[in-house]
Specification:
mainly alpha; Glycerol uptake facilitator protein; two-stranded antiparallel sheet; 64% helix; disordered N terminus; Aquaporin-like; MIP
């Protein structure tokens, strides 16, 4: 996102990449410029495409601190919102929860974007790496920081809530099923794993397509402005949380995660049944990110010049093939 001098080298505009901005949202990118940029990076080495220097860059690790703290605060606040929304006995807990989550996400993105680019979500980081806005190495550092932050946020929440609430609400964790008392003893209630996986894939793709795409596309980012784009991201997250919890209306299903790090923290701290189906909250978003990346490759090149990014995933694959051919 916005660049912090001397801290984020790749992320000059929103989630990173080229700082050349087109004049308006509907203005196609000049395709000859894309071709020329692609030629300039054609001879870049594989290690440069992978951004291996980022693994040993103090600046990148310092920027990842914003990802760690941002994700920790995100997990603490969202899980608190989940618990308090249902604990308050309001008639529309899903609506209240969704609105508060939307506000929280927008605020935290605004707080972290000047330092690290404002990801606080492995979905955003992985998508940015696939498109080539950041290197895969930087993505590894960021996702590691986000996962650590998720655990710290869950630990902080566990420290301030009672054991009864922590047990009854599983620390606001991402759950597909829960163990509930039944007439014949404890029973497992919730959503089918297949349904949860499809919801995770669909909602995560919509999240990327309907909001994060605006940040990736420099023309829209420039035309709309930083604050509006991040508010849209928050609104879309809130809407998808509301839709996923309303359309299923199933006790035990906590709704789509769309953020593996946010789901990982409570799972590690709470443990037990929270791990049931936890893989869904990783596999679903991963598939959605790959589908979104393919979408960016299919659309007309004059509307998105992703090939010019040296870290683009297809460019990395081409470099790998070329290196094998030389051998």
């Amino acid at each position: 996102m916005a660049q912090s001098a001397g801290v984020v080298e790749d992320e000059e505009t929103f989630y990173g990449g080229n700082n050349r901005v087109q004049p308006f949202v509907t203005t196609p990118i000049n395709e000859p410029e894309c071709i020329e940029d692609a030629k300039k990076i054609h001879r870049i080495t594989l290690s440069e495409r992978l951004g291996l220097e980022d693994l040993f860059s103090l600046q990148v690790w310092r920027a990842s601190l914003a990802e760690l703290l941002g994700t920790a605060v995100l997990v603490f606040m969202i899980d608190t919102i989940v618990i308090s929304s249902f604990e308050s006995k309001t008639t529309t807990p899903n609506l209240v929860m969704s609105i508060l989550i939307a506000i929280t996400v927008a605020i935290l993105l605004l707080a972290t974007c000047p330092v690290s680019g404002g990801h606080i979500n492995p979905v955003i980081t992985f998508s940015a790496a696939l498109v080539g806005l950041i290197s895969l190495s930087r993505a590894v550092v960021y996702i590691f920081a986000q996962c650590v932050g998720g655990v710290l946020g869950a630990l902080a929440l566990k420290a301030v809530v009672s054991s009864t609430i922590a047990q009854n609400f599983s620390l606001g964790a991402c759950t597909i099923t829960i163990i509930a008392p039944g007439p014949q003893g404890p029973v497992v209630v919730g959503l089918e794993t297949g349904q949860a996986l499809w919801l995770e894939i669909f909602c995560t793709f919509v999240f990327l397509f309907a909001s994060i795409w605006m940040a990736f596309d420099h023309r829209q980012a420039k035309a709309l402005g930083l604050v509006l784009v991040l508010c849209i991201v928050g609104i879309v997250v809130g809407l998808l949380v509301f839709i996923s919890t309303t359309v299923t209306a199933t006790k035990g299903y906590a709704g789509v995660g769309m953020n593996p790090a946010r789901c990982l923290g409570p799972a590690i701290v709470r443990g037990g049944h929270v791990w049931t189906g936890h893989w869904v909250f990783w596999v679903g978003p991963t598939i959605a990110c790959m589908a979104f990346y393919l979408y960016t490759k299919i659309i007309p090149h004059q509307h998105f010049c992703g090939a010019e990014y040296k870290h683009d995933f297809f460019n990395i694959l081409k470099a790998l093939v070329s290196s094998d051919d030389r051998k």
